[in-house]
User: What shape does this take?
Amino acid sequence: MKRKRYPQDFKEQLVKEAQEVGNALSVAKRHGISEKSLYRWIQESKYKAWKETDGNAKKVAAYIPSPQEFKQIEKENNTLKKLLGEKDLEISILRDLVKKTRPGYPTE
Assistant: This one.
């Protein structure tokens, strides 16, 4: 089976028409092309803007906190670690207490 080539502007016109109509199958039948081709063109058109975007615009910069922000984040992190440790200790004590008062009671 021979593969037929279509110009890019024709493809773009059909993709636009399919999006406006909302029914790619009817557009494909009206123009006498394969619906698979039209669906593929629609998928490719979704990524067209990404392909045409400049490489510098695609780069994502990493956030580097200032020294003051870093100290504040570190302080908050240490506080949260301390709270978590206290909660774990509290849970462990309560489990031991339940084991002593009710030996057959499942604790985990």
